[in-house]
Design goal:
2 copies of one chain form a homodimer. By secondary structure, chain A is mainly beta. Chain A is built from no helices and 9 strands. In chain A, strands 2, 3, 4, 5, 6, 7, 8 and 9 form an 8-stranded antiparallel beta sheet that branches. Chains A and B meet through strand 1, strand 6, strand 7, strand 8 and strand 9 of A and strand 1, strand 6, strand 7, strand 8 and strand 9 of B.
């Protein structure tokens, strides 16, 4: 199992139109470095996996169970398992790091 | 339980000389936004919690079980639970995001 990753060596996975992710997986967790094109959207969805997110750059409108905040500058979020959530990038796009526990098997 | 955090609102916790962290905790995971002063060191240690890390800025010499790599530019690492690891910042310091599962109770 890898212990070190350079994102340049990870093939991007398309999550939604204009939204791609580079995935690194541990045993209990998975990291997903997500790049959003300007105004790109991840529609409302949910999954049993717990999710925490961290803003790397740009801005995101992030909605958790109907509550929306604009994230920027190292903002962090917690999405409990099973709770509906969505994201929409600002006009400059965004980069965010998501962590999931357990790892999402469909992303491996 | 918080779902959104602005790091400006989180009091920093001192992890080692020149190393501070801002902590956000979920149920299965905890995020720790770690700032390293130039050349600051986290000595070799281990914990039963799984750790994954992401480089936000700067450079870190990161050692996992005796294997050392220099991390920069969105590099990611996986430290299985119980495995010894250490970090040393470069001359410009560093910022990294660590994720732990389960959350580290001593950091709450």
């Amino acid at each position: 199992m890898n212990r070190f990753w350079n994102p340049e060596d990870i093939a991007p996975k398309v999550l939604a139109p204009g939204v791609t992710a580079k995935i690194a997986s541990g045993e209990r967790m998975m990291l997903s470095l997500v790049t959003f094109a300007p105004d790109a959207v991840v529609p409302t969805h949910s999954h049993p996996h717990e999710q925490m997110g961290f803003m790397v750059s740009g801005t995101l409108e992030f909605t958790i169970a109907g509550e929306t905040r604009v994230l920027s500058g190292s903002g962090m979020v917690f999405v409990p398992g099973g709770v509906p959530h969505a994201a929409k990038a600002g006009p400059g796009g965004a980069v965010a790091l998501d962590a999931f526990s357990p790892p999402r098997e469909e992303y491996r």
